[in-house]
Amino acid sequence: MQAANPRRGYILGLSAYIIWGLFPLYFKAIAEVPAVEIIIHRVLWSALFGGLLLLVWKHPGWWQELRDNPKRLAILALSGTLIAANWLTYVWSVNNGRMLEASLGYYINPLVNVLLGMLILGERLRRMQWIAVGLAAVGVAQQVWQVGSLPWVSLVLALTFGFYGLIRKQAPVKALPGLVVETWMLVPIALAWLLLNPTATSAQATFWTTSEAWWLVAAGPVTLIPLVCFNAAARHLPYTTLGFLQYLAPTLVLLQAVLLFGEHLSSSTLIAFMFIWAGLAVYSVDAWISLRRRN
């Protein structure tokens, strides 16, 4: 087994979260393509590049394990549907001026994971975890009260990714083969959509002479590279450390939304963020204390 290399782990982990945090720049480059169509191509090119990557980066016996356990294939079909819904919501939010809500969703996500662990896996929450979840709930409630409606983009992103992680936790399938199988299962749906929509932007021959066509093709490596970095980092760093690094991505999205794309950070939204940040601070301190006790 390869010895842990924290320096390499930090470089790989930071690379993954910086790429994820800069995703809005990528999706803005293809903003003229409808969100559904972007996801169709993200599925197709991720399936292709993922298959090629599996040929290079060997995972012995992964297909036989899945073939012998059809239940795992059903689980991956469900997780694939959830991740596609997450992708669609995220792309739509970026290209419709809702990046702040997207950022809020990924800040909420770790606290949703804690809550799902309690409600579904029967895990017991420590006192500080209860406080963290409570602060996040106050932040969401404040947004509902101020805006008069649920921040649905934030909640859909947090819940779909939370349930995705929960389902993948229950499926003993390695990250890359799991993602590839998830996308392969979505390929028939993606191809059917293209066949049923002959007037779609990417169905026109002239589209493939534009730079946007290459951006769509890049959806495969853009999806897979940060995932590979993340999973490599996980072998060199404690999971708690990766948990701290994950706040980098929504912070980058927040900064881009306000500084680059001119989204207005209202006082009510800022208050909601402050409650979420307070919850994350409590959550992080609790995770650090828990780690020290185990060591």
Structural account:
With 295 residues, this protein is mostly helical. It has one domain. The protein is built from 14 helices and no strands. The protein is globular and about 55 Å long. It starts with 5 loop residues before the first helix and ends with a helix. The mean pLDDT is 86.
Biggest sheet overview: none
Total number of strands:
0
Number of domains: 1
**Unreliably modeled segments:** none
Into which percent range does the helicity of residues fall? over 70%
Mean pLDDT: 86
Distance between the termini: 22 Å
CA radius of gyration is 20 Å
| Structural class by helix and strand composition | mainly alpha
List the total number of helices.
Answer: 14
Tell me what portion of residues adopts beta-strand conformation: under 5%
| Large-scale geometry | globular
Query: What's the SSE pattern?
Result: HHHHHHHHHHHHHH
Compact summary:
By secondary structure, the protein is an all-alpha fold.
Draw up the topology in text.
Elements: H1 6-21, H2 23-29, H3 35-56, H4 62-68, H5 70-95, H6 99-119, H7 127-147, H8 152-170, H9 175-196, H10 211-217, H11 219-234, H12 239-245, H13 248-260, H14 267-294
Helix pairs in contact: 1-11, 1-13, 3-5, 3-9, 3-11, 5-8, 5-9, 6-7, 6-8, 6-13, 6-14, 7-14
